Amino acid sequence: MTYYVIYDGNCNLCSNLVQALEQIDRGDRFSYMPMQDTAELAKFNITPEDCELGVILINAENPSQRWQGAVASEEIAQLLPIAAPIVSAYRAIPGLKAVGDRVYEQVRDNRYALFGKRETTYRSSYPACTEGCTPFPAE
Asked: What is the value of pTM for the model shown?
């Protein structure tokens, strides 16, 4: 099964995490789309404003199945065999998920201040394109 990960390609933290996932997954489960690719986002009825609420994970075989924010991050980790037991434990410990959700929101809302903003949008080596990748606007 394939999943699309929609991330902020201008965020240093987000781009570095995508690059780490690329190294682990090598395009087996995940393909990636920066939120700056508005033409591709539109094909999923997603706006850049929607993306401000956090990373989005879409089931490529059933695009109506989606996760966003901290839950999307958990699902991504759950799909990686090495991380699945950690996610299960994280979800099982009372109160830990609530704290994790709040931390995610703080990082999401302050990502540029905390980790910096890239001058150019990071484009994955494993792009999620529905039919030929669309060119990005000049930056």
From this structure: 0.90
